[in-house]
Amino acid sequence: MPITEPFDGYVSASYLLYCNPAAGAVSDTPTADAPVADASVAGAAGVCRQVIVRSGLNVRAEPTVYSTRVGALPTGTTVTTAGAEVNDWLPISEPIDGYVAARFLGDC
Question: Are 29 and 54 in a shared domain?
Answer without folding.
Answer: no
